[in-house]
Write a structure and sequence with these properties.
This protein is an alpha/beta fold. The protein contains 22 helices and 14 strands. The protein has a five-stranded mixed beta sheet, with helices on both faces. Bound molecules: iron/sulfur cluster.
Length: 506
């Protein structure tokens, strides 16, 4: 099929449907008609959207872009509308990307005629310098996906540089968390076929002398070190973290004894590991009970003898218990986020003594989050997957917490109601969670926030009502209330409404 034939007429895309806020069904229909039906069906299976349509978070493609930008010797190129690319580039650099974001611009003509695909192919050819890159990643955003721009037809390899083309439309991949999975899985698949075909590069630090456990999920940098220490008495070592920071780490990640799905939403990556014959263990070593259960599960997955597992528990669990007891958290908390680690943080909060009432996550329920969900629900916590902003806000209203941990709009609403609040992404997920280092690590920031309740109440007393309705704006004189005007206009409006009703009855 020629690229021209493969690219659908974008006339099938209504103008008002070409953004993240509307026309999703039309975009899906257009993408299907343009040959992307199979990809969309796979995404629908891997990333189920229910119970409601789609969580409100940033453009999903950011997850895939970030994974590409964090890899050494990898060029990442976006194909999409300029406004989307502007937003994604801005966010990437806001989060400290030290690499350029590539872009192949298009207009209606290049989209209609298939020239966009030709332009992408040319850009990839120019970029594919083996001195500079191991891989070039091209990401189709919403409009090129809906138009069927056939990235799957790009050469798989140019001068030894791997080429990976993926579709990451907002109407097919619900969250940026799952978009990380789309690219991570595509890379794992590519690396697996390379490893099956012959010898591949060893990890930069050499091959581990112990069998390894690959860590699935972008965790805080200290956590893999802690996990390595936890694994040591089992005769195991921590393998690479997926998404990896370098192409050759993908081979080492695949060459593991088992995979720890520390973040539970990597459905497609898990599939790649399972195809490679690797066992996958859910949950993570958080808190006393979480660490004990995780060591047992890893021991079982890697055929470690029971005495060795018992030794590891003996070595670490008392220290975790001590750290939790030294740093208690007292207060009612609601928690929501879109990182995928919300349930783990919830476990730590409960083990620290907090009265946790609600955990909402934008991510879907998967088998790998089941142990944490069951543990939390057994302690009376309401756990909501694919939680919407409205559901997170309703939980804050229902449970009247002493502290709301959440996304930006949840934090904003809570603070307006004089409830202390913390951003999940910046303040909670930027801390170690695992093993002895994670136990008690949340207490300092959370207790400081809980201690702010009186200040919020004082501020509400002082500023209460300012900036709302007719007290908003800047006034040079104190406004004089005119209730008589209001009454007069209300009477007029009532008269007009009455006349309209009378007309309707004629
Ligand atoms: S690519 Fe992202 S920002 Fe652009 S329309 Fe799709 S979801 Fe929205």
């Amino acid at each position: 099929m020629s690229p021209e034939a493969a690219v659908a007429e974008p006339a099938s895309l209504p103008a008002e449907g070409r953004d993240c806020h509307g026309g999703r069904e039309q975009l899906r229909a257009a993408a299907k008609a343009a040959g992307k039906g199979e990809t969309l069906e796979r995404y629908a299976k891997d990333y189920p959207a229910g119970p409601h349509d789609q969580p409100q978070s940033m453009c999903p493609a950011f997850g895939a872009l970030r994974v590409g930008l964090r890899m050494r010797r990898t060029a990442t190129v976006l194909s999409g509308s300029a406004c989307c690319v502007y937003g994604l580039t801005f966010t990437s650099h806001f989060y400290g990307a030290r690499r350029p974001v590539g872009y192949v611009p298009f207009n209606s003509e290049t989209l209609v005629t298939g020239k966009l695909y030709e332009d992408i192919r040319e850009a990839v050819n120019q970029l594919a310098d083996p001195q500079a890159y191991d891989a070039v990643v091209v990401i189709n955003l919403c409009v090129p996906t809906a138009s069927g721009v056939p990235l799957q037809m790009l050469p798989k390899d140019i001068n030894g540089v791997r080429v990976i083309g993926i579709d990451v439309p907002g109407f097919g991949v619900p969250t940026h968390a799952e978009a990380k999975d789309v690219l991570a899985a595509a890379m794992l698949r590519y690396a697996r076929t390379e490893a099956e075909a012959g010898p591949v590069a060893a990890p930069r630090a050499g091959v581990s002398s112990q069998p390894t456990v690959t860590l699935l999920g972008e965790v805080f940098p200290a956590d893999p070190v802690t996990v390595g220490a936890l694994l040591e008495p089992l005769g195991l070592a921590a393998g690479p973290v997926v998404p990896t920071r370098e192409w050759r780490e993908l081979y080492a990640a695949l060459d593991c004894e088992a995979v720890a799905a520390l973040h539970p939403f990597y459905t497609a990556s898990v599939r790649e590991f399972q195809v490679a014959g690797r066992r996958v263990v859910g949950s993570a070593p958080v808190g006393y009970e979480g660490t004990a259960a995780w060591l047992e599960a890893i021991g079982a997955a890697c055929n470690v003898s029971e005495p060795k597992v018992a030794l590891a528990k003996q070595r670490f669990l008392p220290a975790i218990q001590g750290a939790l007891a030294r740093m208690p958290i007292k207060g009612r908390i609601t928690l929501s986020g879109y990182e995928g680690s919300e349930l783990l943080v919830g476990r730590l909060l409960i083990e620290s003594g907090a009265e946790l009432r609600y955990v909402g996550t934008a991510c879907p329920r998967t088998p790998w989050s089941d142990p944490d969900r069951e543990w939390l629900e057994a302690r009376g916590v309401q756990v909501r997957f694919r939680a919407s902003l409205e559901q997170d806000l309703a939980a804050v209203a229902e449970y009247s917490p002493d502290l709301a941990i959440g996304t930006t709009p949840v934090v904003q609403k809570a603070k307006e109601a004089a409830i202390p609040a913390l951003y999940f992404t910046n303040l909670i997920s930027a801390r170690p969670l695992m093993g002895p280092a994670g136990a008690g690590s949340l207490a300092t920031v959370i207790n400081a926030a809980l201690g702010n309740k009186a200040r919020f109440a004082a501020m509400q007393d002082f500023f209460g009502g300012v900036g709302k309705k007719d007290t908003s704006g800047i006034w040079t004189d104190t406004p004089v209330p005119r209730p008589e005007f209001r009454e007069r206009y209300q009477a007029q409006l009532a008269k007009v409404a009455k006349a309209r009703r009378a007309e309707e009855m004629v």
